[in-house]
UniProtKB/TrEMBL annotation:
This is Cytochrome bc1 complex cytochrome c subunit. Binds 2 heme c groups covalently per subunit. Its EC number is 7.1.1.8. Keywords: Cell membrane, Electron transport, Heme, Iron, Membrane, Metal-binding, Repeat, Respiratory chain, Translocase, Transmembrane, Transmembrane helix, Transport.
């Protein structure tokens, strides 16, 4: 007994026991972890591979085969490292990409890819660098949003967005041939993605600028605004003083000119 007790008290005993425990834990991890990890990553790896193949065919000619970007006299494809999956879903899912030719701004076209293909492209671009992920449905689903939050969303929209998108979200012109698009037919998902990615001339409204609940309130306000019946008759496109002033000039000033010409013609006939 004294011999065994002396061996347990040997200075190397604790180190040997620690090494043995680490060896056992490593063996168990090797036996149990690989099967679970491979089954979890198979779909993701396959999706990324499919996205890379789609990217090479539809996007690589402008953005480079590895998303490094190209800027020449005929090609203006920015690098995509760090734009995130949300930017890809917004641009491709709204039909803005791929562009047929360089332009001041990417116009909306019919969507050319399926939802699965868009998800694959987004998954591939997400591997190029960290960026905003595609938001979960609960982040932009406005079901159950209170009237108080809708009113707060209206205040936030008028403060942060109406200078470009118009007080009704009808869009407006910007310098250099660019424009803020109308939001009347935009989905909740794309409005949210636009706020977190900042496409074209739009600034990025990250969570430090607009909290997730603020973004949802803005989306709820736009949905409520665009679902209201028009009680005032002809809204002239919802462009406010621009269209109203145009018609005032056409009808008002035009009517005065026509009346002046009529008076003059009567005077000439009288002579």
């Amino acid at each position: 007994m004294s011999f065994l007790a002396a061996r347990r008290r040997h200075p190397a005993a604790r180190a040997l026991l620690l090494l043995l425990a680490l060896f056992v834990m490593g063996a168990l991890s090797t036996l149990l972890a690989p099967g679970q990890q491979s089954s979890a990553d198979t779909g993701t790896s396959q999706q990324v591979a499919e996205g890379k193949a789609l990217f090479a065919v539809g996007c690589g000619s402008c953005h480079g085969l590895n998303g490094e970007g190209q800027v020449t006299s005929t090609i203006q494809g920015p690098p995509l490292a760090g734009v995130g999956a949300a930017s890809v879903e917004f641009q491709v899912g709204s039909g803005r990409m791929p562009m047929a030719a360089p332009a001041a701004q990417a116009p909306v076209h019919p969507v050319r890819y399926s939802e699965a293909e868009i998800a694959a492209l987004a998954a591939y671009v997400a591997t190029l660098g960290p960026g905003p992920a595609i938001p979960a449905p609960e982040e932009y689903n406005t079901a159950g949003v209170s009237q108080e939050d809708i009113a707060r969303g209206g205040e936030l929209f008028r403060t942060n967005c109406s200078a470009c998108h118009n007080f009704e979200g009808a869009g407006g012109a910007l310098p250099g041939g660019k424009y803020a698009p109308s939001l009347k037919n935009s989905s909740n998902l794309h409005i949210y993605e636009a706020m977190v990615t900042g496409p074209q001339q739009m600034p990025v409204f990250n969570d430090d600028v607009l909290r997730p609940e603020d973004k949802k309130a803005i989306i709820a306000y736009l949905n409520d605004l665009h679902s209201r019946p028009n009680q005032g008759g002809l809204d002239l496109g919802g462009l406010g003083p621009v269209s109203e002033g145009l018609w005032a000039w056409i009808i008002g000033i035009g009517g005065l000119i026509a009346f002046a010409v009529w008076i003059a013609s009567k005077g000439v006939k009288a002579k």
